[in-house]
Amino acid sequence: MIIDQEKINEAIRTIQEYGGHGILNCVQCGACSAICPGVKAGFPLLCRNLIRHLLNGQLEEIIEDSSSWGCQACNRCTEVCPQGVRPQEVVFAFRRYQGNQLAFSTSAVTSQMNLYETGHAVYSDPKELRKQVGLPEETPTSAFDEKARQEIQALINAGPMGELGLF
Amino acid sequence: MAKVGVYVCHCGSNIASVIDVSAVRDFAAELPGVVLARKDLFMCADSGQELIMQDVRDGLVDRVVVAACTPRTHEPIFRAALERAGLNKYLFEMANIRDQGSWVHGQDHAGATEKAKKIVASAVGKACNLEPLEDKFVEVTDAALVIGGGIGGITAALELANMGHKTYLVEKQPSIGGVMAQLDKTFPTNDCSACILTPKMVEVYNHPNIETYTYAEVDDVEGYIGNFKVKIRHKQTYVDWKKCTGCGDCASKCIGKAADEFNGGLSERRAAYIMFPQAVPKKAVIDMDHCINCGGRDIGTLPKVNQKTGKLILAPCEKACPAHAIDRSIAYDPNGDIQEVEVGSIVVATGYQVMDKGWFKEMAPESPNVITALQLERIISATGPSEGKLVRPSDKEKPHTITFVSCMGSRDEHFHTYCSRFCCMYMIKQARLLKEKYPDLVINMHFIDVRSAGKDYDEYYTGARKMGINFFKGKVGGLEMLPDDKLRVLAYDMEGGENIEYVSDLVVLATAVELPADATTLAQKLGIQFCGANFFRELHPKLGPVETATEGLFLAGCCQGPKDIPDTVSQAKGAAAAAAVPLAQGKVRIEPIISEVITELCSGCGICVPLCPYQAISMRTVEDRPRAQIEMSACKGCGVCTSACPSGAIVLHGYKEEQIFAQIEALTA
Q1: What is the pLDDT of residue B332?
Q2: What's the pLDDT score for residue B255?
Q3: pLDDT tier at B413, thresholds 50, 70, 90
């Protein structure tokens, strides 16, 4: 790797503009990765390692990596981070960067389609399980609410996501 | 008419890189009263001072303004230069254009230059109105007070006493020794802590120049360098220490129980107890918060008489004491007795506490097998609850896997952003001691990074790697409780870029070093300032590491910031040497920046008397009329009386009305 200050500045500015304001606070302690379910599942570029690459200025080099879409948004990284980096915000900022560059991971297509169609990125039919435990079969969410779904679809269509032509 | 000389300093690039020094000099040269204005790279250097001295000797100037860094460190230097040149040193005024200029306005060069001009104009305004003042001197009480009986306080007391000064050592616990007495061994040499500390404890206690007061606290301090009046509160022990032989029979009969603080709460002690086996003084106390009045008799009441035998019915502790040192008919008095001592200087060495594990919710603090490193220290100590045998708290079984977690509450913006400095080293020490004793033990150590700066420290760390202790770079993110009181460790291997999960029997947290709450209260009584990390603030981070903003008050050890034993001992010796200076001189100088009553103008209204925070003002009778007077040695020059006097009869020398108005005029011109 070559240290290129221009590229480092560009990467940090990009991430901060997309909402990853705390990226420069990172001291690379790794606490976020220690509890990250995405890291545990094997996504290589989440939390600590994603931030390392960004701080190295390797923004474009990792643009095609799909790890960021493995973030479950549990936000535990924010809880354990001793430096106020808010790693999840960095991951999301990187996602926004990827989305805006139309570098949309194929592995994320299903979840985006789910989001568009049901309002849930991770969705499976809940009816059977809910019936078993004695709950009403339909959840009180967008999955069973036509109006809410239309609103979500309108928002997605109006944003950069709409430009991807997935839907 | 005053002849003011203005000298603008570049301070290397500290000032000149932001402020246009030449422009400030040119501006100053045109101010009324200014006869010359010069600039120099370093006004405080020999050549800079010589510049001033030559102008004074040549009769060109008789008032000096230096526009430079800060009076906090450099005012005495320039005053001394004036004195050497034959000018009264109080005809000097400093314009602070670094701390209040270039350092805070680094982004605005033009603005900073304009502000510097105003600050200089204000200083010149005051300088035109300065008057010569004479230093005053007061006698010094040749005695010192050391607050805190840990290794820092012990060292400082011994140094002062060996220099021949009477020294009072005050410790709040029943025994001196501090945290060091709780330690098993010490890095990087693995000396037994007790073996090197207890001789010092005995030496202090038996020293002819030292009065050691344990179970005592400093209640109040009044006065000033050379003449402090200290109130020491002796907490009631309910045991006559003149008679107590330290046999411990009272403790063995006592049934009131409390968590043993000395063992980090891992065992119980009795309400009547001796703090630890090597305690100095080895004396018992009865802790009334945990005494259950088991003899059926409240403290402070006389014993009942047995109707049949006619004998007194004594409480178990009274009955057990072969020296008859315990008398429960003494009135309960949580306030204790106040003793007053007078000292010339004070060394504060109140030490530290480590954070409780309860703060770290992600670290399963409710598990008995998650402990602090200080608790592990007690577990592996021969005087600890398991007599040095490694057992985990839940089932008293030997653990197979031990995990060490660094930086709990240190380097963490939720708690303390500073590094606690000695945790890395004591964790490595504990791991090494355990690995030596139990080679089969699996020891996993997790660090953000290992900080082993110090003589022989890095060798101690690399040696630990060679012993087969596992080191991982990466902070532990969390612990999960498992059946059988085991713990799942969620960690991360920074170098390999993989997360780590394993089951551990015992987890040791290196919790942060911090100032105890009662030290904060003490600091307020003493007038000690705090630094950003909430430790006691030294006068200067580099050049005044043992002094404080209050003259005659010195710092040693962890109350000033986290430090290990060698650093604490070094600082304590430094503090003792500094504290001995006024005692050796026999008298101290009092700056004449103090208030004075002009008796002819005083109406005798007495408003000033209760306003003075230092009780320096009293009323006296002058020609049958009441008039205020100010005790010079007690006055601190705060100016409260001056501004409150309705007759304008009180002047604060160095801040007279015309001087301050001249400053305001210059600033608002």
Answers
A1: 84
A2: 93
A3: very high
CA-based nearest distance A46→chain B, Å: 10
B316-330, B386-400, B425-439, B441-455: range with lowest mean pLDDT = B316-330
Q: Which fold has domain B147-225+342-351+518-577?
A: FAD/NAD(P)-binding domain (3.50.50)
Residues in chain B: 669
- Please state the ipTM of this predicted complex: 0.74
Rounded CA separation A157/A112 (Å): 12
Domain B595-652 carries which CATH code?
Answer: 3.30.70.20
SS3 of residue B231 by DSSP: strand
CA–CA dist A145, B354 (Å, integer)? 54
Q: Nearest-CA distance from B63 to chain A in Å?
A: 50
The β-bridge relationship of strands B587-590 and B136-139 is: antiparallel
Q: State the pLDDT confidence band at A145, using cuts at 50, 70 and 90.
A: very high
Cα–Cα nearest to B335, from B424, B246, B236, B195: B236
Residue A143 lies in domain:
106-160
Interface test with A, best of B413, B475, B493, B500 (most A CBs within 10 A): B475
Instruction: Say if strands B210-213 and B506-511 run parallel, antiparallel, or are unpaired.
Output: unpaired
Judging contacts by C-beta atoms under 8 Å, the chain B residues touching residue A35 are 362, 477-478, 490
CATH number of the structural domain spanning residue A79 = 1.10.1060.10
Q: Is it true that B4-134 and B595-652 share their CATH fold? A: no
pTM of the model: 0.85
pLDDT surpassing 90 at residue B431: yes
Kindly give the pairing relationship between strand B498-504 and strand B487-493: antiparallel
Retrieve residue A149's tokens.
């779904």
